[in-house]
Predict the 3D structure of the following.
Amino acid sequence: MLRSLYWASAGLAMIAAGPAFADDLAATGGWSANTKGQAATPPMGWNSWNAFHGDIDEEKVLASANVIVNSGLAAKGFKSINIDDGWWLKRDMATGRVIIRTKTFPSAAMPDGSTSFRPLTDRLHAMGLRAGIYSDIGRNTCGQVFGNGSSTNPEGSVAEREVGLYGHVDQDIGIFFKEWGFDYIKVDGCGIRALPASSPLVKNGTYRAFSPLIDFDSIQRTDVKAVRGLFEEVAQALDRHNPDGQYTFSLCIWGSADVRSWAAKVGNLSRTSEDITPQWSRMLHNMDTAARRELYAHPGSWNDPDMLFIGSGEFDAAHMTEARSHFSMWAMLNAPLIIGFDLRKANAEQLAVLGNSAIIALNQDPGGHQAVLAYDSNDLQIYVKTLANGDKAVALLNRTSAPIEADLTAAQLKLASDAQIGMTDLWSGKTMQFVGETKLPVGPRETLVYRVSGRHLLPNGSYLSELPGNVYPAVDGVTARQLDPMIHRGLGPWTGTRGGGEPPRYAGWGGARADRAPLGQELSIYGTKFPYGIGIMANSRIEVRNPGKRKLVAQVGIDDSGDAGGRRVRFEIYGDRKLLSQSAWQAAGTAPASIEASVAGYRIIELVARTDRPGGGDFPVSWGNAALTD
Ligand code: GLA
């Protein structure tokens, strides 16, 4: 008793002085997700890797660029032509400059014997395209480490073959962007992951050892701070060498190193998983790593479940249902739409899938709201995305190989159940209407996608869960990082079915969610269920960009899905750093408390859930039915 009184009063005192045990809960008045660079909407374009792996050359790159322009895909937004691994010859020891392999990129050979990608980027720019380059944050690249022996790997001495950014960030970024004119960079991470002293490639003298900063199998043995520091160095160099802000920064560390908690502050897009393969089950795996991270994607900082594989394997010309599903889901999740196909081989039907303007418009919607799961099962999922003009998009994904009859309800769409709802099927163009709910047959591996209009459930505002692009859990309260068990474990990209299968890898379990508690349960406070709202761990701070609304309302409390261990939580609402409203201290086993703040004129609203004493592990709290209204 005495102890809890002590912490309660200490907690109160800390508000004034700034809490001692959780000072990152202090309101900042800022939006800490990245807005630098060029990624107001998810990047669109083409990348060489899925089509050619390291076996690339200038002709292949230009051939796909030509198809992109001539087919009209460029005009629809597919603008970035990105060169992946395999372009380099070596690092020149005298100047430190990376030399391009002119055998495969002949236009890079300069009369004075040096190499430059400027002729190629000039050519792409003249076609109205952007140009992308690839590097690694370590000394060596993924192709060197995992594709050792490939004919396009760098050549020369151990030192000459160190073509990665490590130790050369400023020089390389300056050359890529200022000299060579690139607009986009993907930075991989194999060089800081896979070359321990025990590696056979180190032991046999092929590469210098790099004591791993990322242990892909263990978040505990990963040096998150150091990894983040290296990527921040690149972000700063990009900023420095591109005073016009004309760059896109793509992070590629596959969801490792707790990247969920910091990538949105550092770059424009961040890979959430290992590589995609052209298999249905692997597509589901990659999709799942982004599907429950809806609050971690915003204009300027997107989730990247990897590139499209339309055109190959189970997404080839004989699998157009799967191809449409893959494209639909990437669009709904605001994933980058980066084509990974040798477009010289694309037929008209495949180009039409990639060029479906109505689906592209969902991905490129200026609202930037990633779709939110309205219904979640291993068989069928229903995703709903809020669009800037007030329409919704809904996708019904049949993950299985058997037909499913789905029920779609007005409540799932957050639309009124007594008014007509109009839907246009974005693949067939057919329209339909219903009131309340409707039945929709979804074929094996099919995704139905509709653009939807109807009367909003909240006529004068939005639930925060309708606006994920405006909501950033800057401090999500996850301190005990756990591997996410919810990700479909598909066939491994490199291992086949050897070993025991791919274990959960992404340490993002327990992150903030829209319309769900952090561990996936319904939002619920002392038995009162909330269909909508934000679920997050205690000791958290959510930043909300106010779209010009006057009031923020919510029902708050400790969520039933965890164990607060006797701790209490106070809910606070700030407007541009000023405390506007706060609840009493809430204990588990107490009914939801109403909280409301007048937010008119405030740009950044912050929602803080603060515990009365430190320690004890993570437990969930709910901002039930949290909404912004007039
Ligand atoms: C890693 C990345 C891929 C690709 C290859 C290139 O595996 O995840 O997307 O860039 O490296 O070697």
Residues 49, 84-85, 142-143, 188, 252, 275 surround alpha-D-galactopyranose (CB under 6 Å). Residues 102 and 109 are 6 Å apart (CA to CA). The domain at 463-629 is CATH 2.60.120.1060 (Jelly Rolls). The first strand starts at residue 44 and ends at 47.
